[in-house]
Design goal:
Number of helices: 5
Largest sheet: 6 strands, antiparallel
Number of strands: 9
Shape: globular
Number of domains: 1
Mean pLDDT: 87
Strand content: 25-35%
């Protein structure tokens, strides 16, 4: 189910996300896992065949709540997504900002990270642009506990929590990324995303 987790997170973590309207259910999470399995299976078929799969906001949020725990970095809790439509997504998660500050050793009076302490909700809204098998999230606005923050502060948080052996400095907010499973495009409509292979 590793491929299912990667694809679900690629869909869900294009940004930190806002709370969904309906409470997520285990059934919704299972539905998403079945759809992801179908998407992964279709990736092994000849390129001439195409597939369109609709993934709902509720399914993604259910997966984040019930099944993505081991794929979400320690210090990030309660992630959720709002699929706003017209390509726009909004995300929310409660984030341990002390860990980011300690790792950075933020002590300067002029460094905004030196003022951010504890576990606070971080939100971001932007547009997902995708075509020809690649995608990019274009940030519009970000906030911590409802206070607007500059992009550079969100970048520090994202960099810290997305570091890995292959990405020592983490993911850049402006980076484009290759879509998995031969996905060509993701169309974002209100409450749902259409995955096109």
């Amino acid at each position: 189910m590793q491929g299912a987790g990667s694809l679900a997170l690629a869909i869900a973590l294009t940004a930190f996300v806002s709370a969904a309207a309906a409470p997520p259910t285990r059934h919704d999470s299972e539905t998403l896992k079945r759809k992801v399995a179908l998407i992964n299976a279709h990736a092994d078929k000849p390129a001439k065949s195409s597939l369109r799969t609709i993934v709902t906001e509720g399914e993604v949020n259910a997966y984040l709540r019930y099944d993505a725990g081991d794929q979400i970095p320690a210090g990030v809790v309660e992630p959720s997504i709002s699929i706003l439509g017209a390509g726009r997504l909004s995300g929310r998660a409660v984030v341990d900002l002390d860990a980011v500050r300690r790792a950075k050793n933020a002590t300067s009076f002029f460094d905004p990270m030196s003022y951010l302490t504890g576990r606070l909700p971080v939100t971001a809204t932007g547009t997902l642009k995708s075509s020809n098998g690649t995608a990019q999230f274009v940030l519009e606005t970000a906030a911590i506990a409802g206070v607007t923050i500059p992009k550079i502060v969100l970048q520090e948080i994202v960099s810290y929590y997305s570091r890995s052996a292959s990405h020592a400095s983490g993911v850049g907010l402006d980076d484009s990324f290759v879509l998995p499973s031969r996905i060509r495009e993701i169309q974002v409509e209100r409450g749902q995303a259409i995955i096109i292979q």
